[in-house]
Amino acid sequence: MSKQHSPRPLDGIRVIEVGQLLAGPFTGHLLGYFGAEVIKVETPGEGDPIRKWRILRDGTALWWSSLARNKKCVTANLRTDEGRDIVRQLIEKADVVIENFRPGTMEKWGLGPDEMRAKNPGLIYARISGYGQTGPYATKPGFASVCEGFGGFRYVNGFPDEAPVRPNLSIGDTLAGMHSFMGILMAIIHRQKDAGNRGQVIDTALYEAVFNLLEGVVPEYDGAGVVREPSGSTLTGIVPTNTYRCSDGKYVIIGANGDSIFKRLAHAMDRPDLAEDPRLEDNAGRVEHEKELDEIIEAWTKTFTSDELIETLEEARVPCGPIYSVADMLEDPHYQARGMFEEVDVAGEPLKIPAIIPRMSDTPGRTDWPGAEVGAHNQEIYAGLLEMSPEQLSKLADEGII
């Protein structure tokens, strides 16, 4: 765990995280890393389902230590009037609220942006859902897997004539979290520019966060009628950039799509004829002969181990690199030198979790503690921030409200 105590850019910002699973909590963990006080509201007893997802240690997901870092975990039963009133009081004292329920849920509970901003005009209200707060699909359930397809990512990901491929990550959720994080930061800047500026509502849809990555797909279709199709391990219209097998069965990525870089690759391959071939002198020509060219390159790469190939290509100043597993990352000296892993203590056992970028020279983020137990901060927040008495806390606990 980091021992730094330098100031952080979001010191003094209070965030109430009302949501579960990934998109909202991912937003919250970014804010907390850079100094915000993030108060995470969970269901009494159960907590966030991610606490029980994937690999567990002593009954709690290892992922939880990372995703819930720096968060103050409290409980409130939002199915009760008393629980909702507690959350209402928290939001009234906050700068930011994050929620990722189905649209209309917070309004049903009397916790929607209109109600809360009437009492707290400076409140920044970040909403994350599958399809956004408006439009004909707004009320549909919005899981990342579905929204990655609807947002266009799955269509271009995979190999021609095969089922679209899902990466083994919920990128729709994390992309939505990143976009919400950006929106919150922009809203904070706007609010701070003038004392009269109010907070605002941020509406992030998972499918739109994915859609935002589509580069030239829309103008290419509208302007030329071209639908970008899946292309396996290549990149449509850019050649050569591909993944090539080596003699040890490993793969190396080669990006030699610049004209001068391609010539250097050809000479490294001892194929000056390719460097001087007029058909291959520019990207358009190489695109036309992509299949032939990739076969020639891979026939060459198969004569090297992956380490030998990378050394040869780096000497020729051709961009290349390995495909890393997490085991490779943890052993790599560059990852270590850049401080990409932080160590926390979980129940007396050390655990590495990823650091969060961007790296800031004067106000860096840090991990102060790993994800806490359900309701670990009830006493601190409810007795301190909301000034509840011991009797009130005991009564709320007995009634299952906290």
Tell me the layout of helices and strands.
Blueprint: E1 14-18, H1 23-33, E2 37-42, E3 56-57, E4 60-61, H2 62-67, E5 71-75, H3 81-92, E6 96-99, H4 105-108, H5 113-119, E7 124-129, H6 144-150, H7 153-156, H8 171-193, E8 201-205, H9 206-211, H10 217-224, E9 241-245, E10 251-255, H11 259-268, H12 272-276, H13 283-288, H14 290-301, H15 306-315, E11 320-322, H16 326-331, H17 333-337, E12 341-346, E13 349-354, H18 378-385, H19 390-398
Parallel strand pairs: 1-2, 1-6, 2-5, 6-7, 7-8
Antiparallel strand pairs: 3-4, 9-10, 10-11, 12-13
Helix pairs in contact: 1-8
Characterization of this structure:
By secondary structure, this protein is α/β, with parallel strands linked by helices. The protein contains 19 helices and 13 strands. The protein has helices at 23-33, 62-67, 81-92, 105-108, 113-119, 144-150, 153-156, 171-193, 206-211, 217-224, 259-268, 272-276, 283-288, 290-301, 306-315, 326-331, 333-337, 378-385, 390-398, and strands spanning 14-18, 37-42, 56-57, 60-61, 71-75, 96-99, 124-129, 201-205, 241-245, 251-255, 320-322, 341-346, 349-354. A six-stranded parallel sheet has the order 5-2-1-6-7-8, sandwiched between helices. A three-stranded antiparallel sheet has the order 9-10-11, covered by helices on one side. Strands 3-4 form a two-stranded antiparallel sheet. α1 packs across α8.
